[in-house]
Amino acid sequence: MKNQNGFTLIELVVVIVVLGILAAVAVPKFIDLREEAEEAALSGVVGAMGSAMAINYAGFVASNGAKGEDVDNCDDIGSLMDGGVPDGYTVTPGPLVLGTPSDCTVIQDGSLETDTFVGIATIVIPPAP
């Protein structure tokens, strides 16, 4: 009699059942990744905007007003970032006061999720007449 090697039908069925159970447990965890990815993208963009605003203000203060972009509104953040505000994000306009941190709101256009970064003006807004 020849010695045959291979898997029995029962072994193959057991492996298929185990893979089916693993797939049933893993698939629901991967379905929600899109929402988490959008939240992470918003956090990354907001972090970059806050950093750009802080670096601009630090340069303004360190140079006694000689360096840095003019910023007097939250939506001026586009002038501080290479390429401007990324596509799919909107910065809500809001006035900023020189040397006073203020919250600026960013809206993620597709999901309407919002987050905030700290904005600081680098120019004095003259009072309205």
Automatic annotation (TrEMBL):
The keyword Transmembrane helix applies. The keyword Membrane applies. Gene3D superfamilies: Glycoprotein, Type 4 Pilin. Keywords: Membrane, Transmembrane, Transmembrane helix. SUPFAM superfamilies: Pili subunits. The chain crosses the membrane at residues 6-27. InterPro entries: N_methyl_site (IPR012902), Pilin-like (IPR045584). This is Prepilin-type N-terminal cleavage/methylation domain-containing protein.
